[in-house]
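Let's sit down with a protein and look at its sequence and fold side by side. We need material for that, and I hope you will provide a protein of your own picking. Once you have written the record down, we can walk along the chain together.

***
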Amino acid sequence: MKHFLIGALCAGTMAFTGAMVSAETTIRVTLQLPKTHSLGQNWLDFKALIEAKSGGELQLQLFDSAQLFKDKEVPEAVGSGAVEAGSAFLGRFTGAVPAVDVVSIPFIFENETHLRAAVAAGSDMRNALDSAILAETNNKVLWWQAFGRNIYLSNGSAIRTPGDMADKKVRTYGKIHGWTVEALGGAPTLMSGSKQFLAYQQGAVDVGMTGASAVKSRKLYEVMDHMTLSYDSAIEFLAVMNNDFFEGLSAEHQAIIMEAAAEVESNLRDTIYKQEVAAVEEVTSKMTVVTLSAEERAEWVAATAGVVDRFVAHAGDTGAAVVAAVKAAK
């Protein structure tokens, strides 16, 4: 009987130890958008990769539609460990790292190829910003989530030249965008994306800044009849993880996470720009779509040239370094 009890105890201990060894690590992710959104699908692709590659040892739970935290709360929530990971608009990190707003500087990216090179993982700009975000917020950047590029909306007539912006009230979504509007002669009004439709409908603002995909998803074509494809700045989100949590993972699991991050980042950027083109094509029958000529674009570039100097003065040495890094990326 004694030997039986000892044997049972040993077997139970071995089973418990085995359970501990194979215990799952759960990563909770907070997202303000629904799972059906491109950013939600991006996280689900990441989930599938890390769960498969880890043999189920890594598990991801996606809490979408701001179930846990609002977008503006994500940097603090992730940095403090209140949640393991999440997505947030890049601009949410400007309080800690003003230099992240470099992507909002008008026409700093010459074209899509230049944009892709500048924001690519491992680029000088990414290394500088990702490191600064980590140091200041304890958020480890896993990957950048492309959201599209900026465009302008108007009613009655198109915004083609800087002169068309004179004395117009313009919806913006960040500090640098406000400076851009001021440089163009308009009056910026900071406003969340969800308030756009009503603001345009009621005439609270004359012109809107947003992403092309939002025109389709938010049905903004019902309240605005012109869209100008300025593509003057990039709209980016960050997929971040609490660094203490990340450092506590095994080297194998860290590698799985970063490899999966690189894969889903590349796939999302390709998808977003294709969706951007498709969204523009879809609303062409509902509103007038304007593409700037080379001469018109040159006018915009000249009119907003001073914004970069204002940005460097605001963002300091790191700001100057990332501007130089963007300009060197070709």
